[in-house]
Every structure is written in structure tokens, then in C-alpha cells.
Amino acid sequence: MWERFSHTLIFLFLPRHQRISMFFDSSGRSCVILLLLFPGDSWITAKPQVSRPGAGNTYSHEIAPCRTCHEKIVDSFMDTAHFRTSSLADAHAIKGSFAESQNVLRTRSEGTYFRMERRVSEGEDAFYQTAYQSTKAGVTARTERIDLVIGSGRKGQSYLYWENGLLFQLPVSFLAAREGWANSPGYVDGEVNFGRLIPPRCLECHATSFKIEGTPPAVRYSRNYELGISCRNCHGDGSRHVEYHASHPGETTGKYILNPASFARERRLDNCALCHSGMRKLKRPSFSYQPGERLEDFLMPAASETNPTPEAHGNQVGLLELSKCFRSSPAMSCSTCHNVHQQERDLTQLAQRCLQCHQVNQCKQAGKTGVHPMEQCLDCHMPNQESKLVRIETATTKYPVPYRNHTIGVYPRSSN
Questions:
Q1: Which of 18, 23, 202, 362 shows the smallest number of beta carbons within 10 Å?
Q2: How far apart are CA 39 and CA 358, in angstroms?
Q3: Phi first, then psi: what are they for 206, rounded to 5°?
């Protein structure tokens, strides 16, 4: 623990160009801790020089060729939270309301509030966040444009803006639990903070690609990026596959494409663990992992690999591996229960996967609850829990961030 914090303290005293270099080279846990502890430490102070990417980048453009042969699968996948985990900011993508009386976030600090605005003019339809603060010298205001949307909106969304080729998180997010605006996760209510820099490791789990250009102190993200999680994240680069089958339409066996279903269990798990095994330091640059590779060659081992702690951004794959179900089933992986090509929100339907190995009459609580056990399979044996690390605040309420514990087991509270 102290090694990680000492790494952070050293980071604070580095020159700015070395900070950026270290941040983009490692993007490890110490940098995430720094952002949570010192969210107001803005590293880039030059005036914004914002440019807009092309409209074709709303979601990954690579998915269109896949739809030619896999229309049903692609159309279903496009409704999933994975596919919609990032997009350009537009009226369809942003879930928060810009209507009068619904577009202001008040805080506990008198005179400090945020206003969200949609500005429509000739040739432009854009969205903005403005922070207002009353001081002895008068009212100060800072406005930034909402450029990118992070999150499908099922639980919430955060928003990013461009500055000098880098991406920063905006201070106000959308929270589905209150159907409105809230302070961004980890932000203190009443403070104005536009300085949280977004590292490549965060983008890696919310986009298909984000290339990095230049060297410190002139590091920036390329505008040639692909938003959303696409087919390539799990199946690898499909360009040769598309080219081959376009010229061999009668060929029914997929050529030059990766099929995760054919991977050994460890590699299938690695595909998911890239983003679902907690905050881990990098061995190689972000976006360089390829499906089917050993994740341990790309990421350092999880800090609590032998005893993973349940958390919102915790090691869910490690938690699954602790389960008796997993240890007793040599073929079990994430895809045993999850079909990533479909939106899956019905817990009763998900619980049907349990019946591959278990029988309803085995449930000792079935006769006690008065509820059909299939409706409570997951809530009893993989309960929703509240994050102890992440909170979202408003002026009146602190909202816990829920997550589902992926260690399948018997939980005392659930079985009473």
C-alpha cells in the first residue's frame, strides 16, 4: 500500500512534462488514486484549442462491414451497454435534460451552481456545462463544451471535453437513480473542478481505439479514434476476414477472424478481465492487448488476486474464480452466463443459466420466501452491494454506487 502512495507523492513533485509522460506511460493505480485525492490539480493550464472529430466517429465505424453477414447479431449488439459505452455528444446520446428547471444543479455552497445548456445555431447543435461561483469580486463562470459521452446511461453517464488534444472529465454527470444531474463520481459537492485528466487506460475500456500522438510535453490523443466497444475488441482485426469473404461468398467457414468460443478458458476469461479485473498497472501500452493473448503479459497481477475485494471497479473475474461453481466446472467462463451480443436485464432469464447445473427444488429457501425462486436466484447468490469507495453527491443526498458481487455463494443476509 505505501509503495503505491509513495509513487503518487513522487509524482506530485515531478515537472509537469514528466507528470504527463508518467501518466500516459503507466496509467496505473497510483495515477487513479492521485485523481481521486487531488481532483483539482489541473496539469494543463493553457487556453483551450478545441477541435471536433468527424461525425462518423459517433460509434465504431468498423461494425458496418460485420453487419453485411451478421445482421441479426450486430443489430442486437448495438443495443448493449458495451456498444453504447461511449459516443459523440448529441441529443440522442446525452440522457440528462436541458429543459428549463431541469438543467441546473445546485450545490450546498451558496452561490455555486452548474447550468447545462443546448445551443442550436446555424450549422451547429452543441451542448455545454457552465459553472458559476459567487466571490467577493463578483460572479465567475467557466463554460466547457460536452464533446464525448461516457456510459450508456443505464446507471449514469459522465461527459468529457477536449483541451489541447487531451480529454478531461466535466464536473457534472447524469445519474439514472435520480433521473437527473449530479456531481461526477468522486467530486466534492460545492467545488468547481474541470481538471480531471482522462488516461488511456480508462478510455481502453470505453472505446475501441484511441491512439496517442507526440512525446511529452506535447502528448495528445489522435482524432482518429473509434468510440464504443466493437466486434474488434473480442474478435480482433476483421479487415482481412471481410476482404476474404467478400471475394469468396460461398465460403461458410470463418477465415482470418478470432472466435473467443474456441479459446482455452483462461484466454476467454482474459478477454473480459482486461476491463473487469480491477485497477491494474500496465506492462504494455493501452490498446495493445489482442484477444487470445495472455493478459498477464499486458497487465500486472491484481493487487488482491488471492483474495479480491468486491467493489464497483473491483476484480469481478477474480471474484467469480473464488466461486464453488467456477471451481467445479472446468468449462465455466463469463460467457457461460453472459451473451455479450444481447442486452440482458431480465434476472429471471439470466437465472435460467443456473438450471444447467442446479435444480429449483434444491433451493432451501423456496418455500420460505413466498416468491418463485427463479426470481431471486441472482439477488440471493450474487447480491447487489454498495461501493465503499465511490459515492455520487448532490446538495441533499449521497448516492451509493451499486454493483453485483460475482462470487456465487450463500450470503447470510440473503438467506435469512
A1: 362
A2: 47
A3: -130, 10
pLDDT of residue 146: 98
Half-sphere exposure for 169 (CA within 13 Å, toward CB) = 26
Q: Are 316 and 276 in contact (CB under 8 A)?
A: yes
Q: Which residue has the cell 469468396?
A: 248
What are all long-range contacts of 27-32, with beta carbons under 8 Å and residues at least 24 apart? 27/199, 27/200, 27/201, 27/202, 27/282, 27/286, 28/201, 28/279, 28/280, 28/281, 28/282, 28/300, 29/4, 29/279, 29/280, 29/281, 29/303, 30/4, 30/5, 31/199, 32/199, 32/279
Q: Which residues of the chain have pLDDT under 50?
A: 1-19, 27-58, 415-416
Pairing of strands 148-150, 86-88: antiparallel
- Residue 163: the pLDDT is 96
What is the four-CA torsion angle of 405, 408, 410, 414, rounded to 10 degrees? Answer: 40
Neighbouring C-beta atoms of residue 252, cutoff 10 Å: 7
Dist. CA 412–CA 408, nearest whole Å: 13
Distance CA 27, CA 2 (A): 18
How is residue 373 written as a grid cell? Answer: 425462486
pLDDT at position 390 is 83
